[in-house]
Amino acid sequence: MSEARENQERGTYDVVVLGAGPVGANVADRARAAGLTVAVVERELVGGECAYWACVPSKALLRPVIALADAHRVDGARQAVTDRPDTGRVFARRNHYVNDWDDTGQAEWVKSIGADLYRGHGRLDGPRRATVTRDDGARLTLTARHAVAIATGSRPTLPDIPGIAESRPWTNRHGTDSSTVPTRLAIVGGGGVGVEMATLWQGLGSQVTLLARHRLIPRMEPFAGELIARSLTEAGADVRIGIQVTAVRRPDPTGPVTLTLDDGSELQADEVMFATGRTPATEDIGLDTVGLTPGTWLKVDTTGLVRDVDGAWLYALGDVNHQALLTHQGKYQARTAGDAIGARAAGRPLDDGPWGDHATTADQHAVPQVFFTDPEAASVGLTAEQAAQAGHRIHTVDLDFNAALGANLYADDYRGHARMVVDLDREVLLGVTFVGPGVSELLHSATVAVAGEVPLKRLRHAIACFPTVSEIWLFLLAAYHRKRT
Fold first, then answer.
1. CATH classification at residue 452
2. 41-52 pLDDT, tens per residue?
3. Does 295 lie in the same domain as 407?
4. Alpha-carbon distance 63 to 172, whole Å?
5. Looking at the structure, do residues 149 and 126 belong to the same domain, yes or no?
6. Based on the number of CB atoms within 10 Å of its own CB, is 485 exposed (0-12), middle (13-18) or buried (19 or more)?
7. Residue 182 · residue 304 · CB < 8 Å
8. What is the pTM of this model?
9. Which end of the chain is more exposed for a tag (fewer CB within 10 A), N or C?
10. b/e map of 48-69 (b: 16 or more CB within 10 Å)?
C-alpha cells in the first residue's frame, strides 16, 4: 500500500492544516518540503478569501480604474480617454482572475505537492485530532503526529446597530463579486477596504459616500489619508470624516437603504457596504476541545505556536493570530512555521531568535502594506507616532515627490508625498511611507532597508536610476544628511 493511500485509510498524518487559503497552502508546502505527510481541510473554495473575494478580485477590478486615472495625468494620453471604464469588460477581467470562482486549479496544486485535500468543515477534536464534516453529513477523523495548523482566516465584522440584518449590507465579498454598479453606494469604514472600494466603485460610476469615524487609513501616516480623501473628493465622492452610523433601515427588500447618522441627518443609498473590521473565523473550529475560547484571536510565539496550549503541536497562522491581517504576512508566517514544524519533527534545534530562520520578526518590525487607491499608499515599519511611543529617538524626513524629475515625467504635476522615520541612535530606518501614483512598486526597496536595518551611510550608496520615481530616495537621504550636518 502506498504511503498516501495508507494515510487516507488510517486518517493519520504528520501535519493537519485547517484552511486551504494562501496561508494554509504555504504551511502545507513547507511541511511537505520537510518530508512530512500533510492533510489540508477546506470548507469553501481552495485558495481562500484572498483568491476569490479580497486581494485578487479587488486588484483586478481596481487596475482599469487606476490605469484610466494614470492616463488622465499625462498630456497626450488624457486626450485619448473619453469615457469611463467598460464595466462589462472590467467584471469579465475580474472573473478571469478568480477563474469564475472555480477552485479546480488550486485543488490540483494541493495534490501536486503531495498533500491530501479534504473538503468539509474542519474542527479540532482534542489534542492532535480534527474532524471533517462533509456537506453530505459524513464525518471522518484525522490525527496529527506532529502538528495541527489553524489557518481559517477572518470574516467581516458588522456593527451591532438597529436594522443591520434587514438591510442586507454589502461586505468585502459583495464589493468584489458584484457585477452591477449601484447608482448610489454608501461605504462605512475608512480603513484599507473602505478606501479601496470607494476608489473602485466611484471609478466605475457609482456616486459614493464614504463615512469614517476617524481619519482615513489610520494605521498609516496622517498625510496618506488626507491625500486619498482629497483625491476621492475631486473624483466626485462625498467623504465625511467623524461620522457614525447609528441605525439602518430598508423596508422594501428591493428598495433603497436609509442610514441614520450620529449628527442627526439621514443618508439614502441603493446599497450600503460595511468595511468596519474583521473577526477571527475561529468560532466553530473546536477550540473548546483544547481549552481555548471559541471566536477569539489566538496568541502565538514567533514560530506560530499557540501560547496557551501545551505540547508544542498547535499553530495559528495568518489572520487568526491577529499579528497582521495581510495575505503576504500570513504567507510569511506560514513559511516560517512550516520550517519550524519540520525542525521540531526531526529533532533539530530552532533558530527562533531575532531575524532567525524560525522567527517571524518582521511581524513586529517590518510589515509592508499597500492600498491600491488613487493615489496609492504604501508603507513599511513604524509611523513617526508609533516610533516615538515605542521610545525611539527619531527624526522624520518629509518630501513631496515633485522633487524628483522621474515622478514628474511619470505624471504631469505628480502629486505625492514621502516620509522616512530614522532611528537617530543607530541611524537606520524604522519606517517609510509613500503616497502617490505607482508608489506600490517602491515599497520593496523600503522593506529591504527597514528589515535589513541598512545603515543610512550605506544606503546612500544605493543609486536610484535617473529619471525614475525611485529618485525620491536620493532626495530623502540628502535631506537627512543636510539636517545632520
1. 3.30.390.30
2. 999 999 999 999
3. no
4. 17
5. yes
6. exposed
7. no
8. 0.94
9. C
10. bbbbbbbbbbbbbbbbbbbebb
